[in-house]
Amino acid sequence: MRWFAAALVFFAITSAARADIRINESRFVDGNVVISGETEPNRTVTLDDKYKTKSDGGGYFKFTAHEKPFTCMSDIRSGSDIYSAVISGCLDPGDVDGPLPSKPEAKAPKQ
After folding, report:
1. Which CATH number covers residue 38?
2. What's the mean pLDDT when you consider all of the chain?
3. CA-CA distance, 57 to 74, in Å (whole number)?
4. Is 50 exceeded by the pLDDT of residue 47?
5. Is there a domain that residue 96 lies in?
6. Residue 92: what pLDDT?
7. Ordered DSSP codes for the chain
8. Does 25 map to a domain?
9. Cα torsion at 66, 71, 72, 77 (round to 10°)?
10. pTM for the full model?
11. Which of 43, 63, 68, 102 is deepest in the core (most CB within 10 A)?
12. Is residue 101 part of a domain?
């Protein structure tokens, strides 16, 4: 019976400290970074240690920042959890080392 009580205490402690972050959207469009996702309800969420918001009662949050991250990545924190998100649409063609891959030419179907 002791092991059962110890397991319950362990489960309660570890589940209370858990704050999963799920990213639903992470993009750069019209000069803005837009990141939205889910975490625990009513929890403070930070973006790159600069911007703060609070998740709603369903755990949803959204950031719109008017700057382009230098690395095209952002860190989202909620509780002790951290998630590094790649920002789609952030890289300019000149940001990539080397030539961009070209599209292969379409071949005509055989008859």
Report:
1. 2.60.40.10
2. 80
3. 24
4. yes
5. no
6. 74
7. -HHHHHHHHHHHHHHHH----EEEEEEEETTEEEEEEE-STT-EEEETTTEEEE--TTSEEEEEESS--TTSEEEEEETTEEEEEE-BT---GGGSSSPPPPPPPPPPPP-
8. yes
9. -80
10. 0.66
11. 63
12. no
11 falls in which pLDDT band (50, 70, 90)? very low
For residue 91, what pLDDT is reported? 83
Structure-block tokens of residue 65? 């920042």
* pLDDT, mean of residues 8-17: 46
- How far apart, in whole angstroms, are the C-alpha atoms of residue 26 and residue 89? 9
Tell me whether residue 98 is in a domain.
Answer: no
- Tens digits of residue pLDDT in 19-46: 589 999 999 999 999 999 999 999 999 9
The answer to whether 89 touches 34, Cβ cutoff 8 Å, is no
**CB-based contacts of 69: which residues, under 8 Å, 6+ apart?**
33, 48, 87, 90
Which domain does 56 fall in, by range? 19-91
Rounded to whole angstroms, what are the CA distances from 44 to 19, 35, 80, 82, 100? 11, 15, 11, 12, 40
**Number of structural domains, the chain?**
1
